[in-house]
Amino acid sequence: MCRLCRDGVESMHHIFVTCNQFNDWRREAAMEVETRTARKLLEAGVPEEGQLHVLRAAKSLFSDESSVWPLKITQYSLGQVPTTQILITSTMLPDNIKRRFLSAAGTTL
Questions:
Q1: CA atoms of 69 and 63, how far apart (whole Å)
Q2: Which helix (H) or strand (E) holds 55?
Q3: Other CB atoms closer than 10 Å to residue 33's CB: what's the count?
């Protein structure tokens, strides 16, 4: 059992995602990731409707959000992040950054 909360088996997933001892830290980290992501999207000129999916994924980095994580559980503690190709399509991007973003993602126009 978890030595910190005694509410679950002490595993990486429990410590990083569900352990009550780290709720405040996860909430603060999620807000910081969402704030920084929103700023980057705004700087890049991504329209507001295109930002919604990305911001939801950013906010879900520290939780088991099944619509964001293909395996239905977060993988950030393993160094994984949700794929942006599902979240951002070329129609969401302004022309001035479309080529740069898509080439970085390994996608062609």
A1: 9
A2: helix 48-59
A3: 19
Phi-psi region of 45 (alpha: psi -120 to 50; beta: other; left: phi over 0): left
Domain regions of the chain by residue span: 12-104
Question: Rounded to whole angstroms, how far apart are CA atoms 8 and 50?
Answer: 38
- Between CA 26 and CA 31 the distance in angstroms is 9
State the greatest distance between any 2 C-alpha atoms of the chain, in Å, as a whole number.
Answer: 52
- 65 burial class (0-12, 13-18, 19+ CB within 10 angstroms)? middle
What residue type is assigned to position 1 of the chain? M
Q: Tokens for 64?
A: 């088991």
Q: Are 105 and 85 in contact (CB under 8 A)?
A: yes
CB 19 within 8 Å of CB 7: yes
Question: How confident is the prediction for the chain on average, in pLDDT?
Answer: 79
Q: Calculate the dihedral angle through the C-alpha atoms of 10, 12, 15, 19, rounding to the nearest 10 degrees.
A: -70
**Which region among 24-33, 51-60, 65-74, 97-106 has the lowest average model confidence (pLDDT)?**
97-106
